[in-house]
Write a structure and sequence with these properties.
This protein is an alpha+beta fold. The chain has three domains: 62 residues; 123 residues, Immunoglobulin-like (Sandwich); 116 residues, no CATH class. The chain has seven helices and 14 strands. The strands form four sheets. Strands 1-2-4-8-7-6 form a six-stranded antiparallel β-sheet, with no helix packed on it. Strands 3-12-9 form a three-stranded mixed β-sheet, with no helix packed on it. A three-stranded antiparallel β-sheet has the order 5-10-11. Strand 1 and strand 2 form a beta hairpin. Helix 5 packs antiparallel against helix 6. The longest helix has 34 residues. It is flat, with a radius of gyration of 30 Å.
Length: 358
Amino acid sequence: MRTTRLNRSIEKRTHLAMWLAGMLCFLMAPSAMAQSTGPKNDAPAPVPVSIEKSQGPVRVSISLDRDAVAMAESFDMRVRIEAERDVMAGMADYKDILGAFEIVNRTSETADCDDLHDCQEIVFTLRALMPGEASIPSLLFGYADARPKMDGSTGTIEDRFETEPIPMRVENSLAGMRNPASLPMPWSLKLLRWGLGTIAVLAIIGLVARWWVKRPRNIPYAAVVPQRSPYEWAMDELNRLISENLIGRNEHQEFYYRINGLLRQYIERRFDVMAGEQTSEEFIRSVQSMGALSMDQRETLRTFVAACDPVKYARQLPSADESTWVLNAARDFINATRQDAFVTQPATTGQARSEVPT
């Protein structure tokens, strides 16, 4: 009860301090505005901007309809990916936020191309979040080349690359205002404002000093937030992905990006391997060396990656049975490798405990 009364008292004093601080800002702001002249808006007119980046058999071009926007104004960024025939290429799955910009919408479609290339175009509708100098951050792209080589060798060549940042200028919506004419403030009003401001500052200092002296020295209770296990996290994310019905909405590439990343993050959390940063070949090699997994589980992961890559990079359209298998394979693997799916054998003399899958 005593703690409750003390918390209420502190809360009331905090509200009073906030009110006094707001009044102080109200009193001081007009004086500063009356004395300020403000800079002129001499910013250059917006112009279109574009960049290109080539890496192996892939060329990427990024274009913006202008290099300067106003706050809360939407603009388009077009990303064109040209890859030689039989080369799977794509970009990272950017959602919600892209640097200092909000992703309002994202659409993708097959673009016109010559007979030697496959082309796709992705259009992002962006909106600036904060005024000032900003930039479109580096964008990540990747490709997989499984074509036969000139020397007759086979194998898949995978690579990733990034584009250069694109500088942008975000202007405040009031940036077009010129210098306003300021009216002289009477001395009586100035003295009144400064007097009330001084009283507000002294009141805030007094409240802070009083709180510091009477602040509680001990915290009676500590809230402990339980940490979720890798299995609980993965199942929650998997159920959330299923509820979005991406397959039913024909968003197959988005579904395969998400479920592939989900399973990799689960393996990273569960077995402490850097699965999320590896290429497909590196991921398969690391899986093959994991002694905690059975041969069937390793083969399932290899087949899972082989099923996801064509949809992620080449935008192939999977069948309903293939999509169902990918979903069930991820769920079964997570269930089979959860912590309580392993038993700990009792240690004998001279032997350490070991984890054995049931």
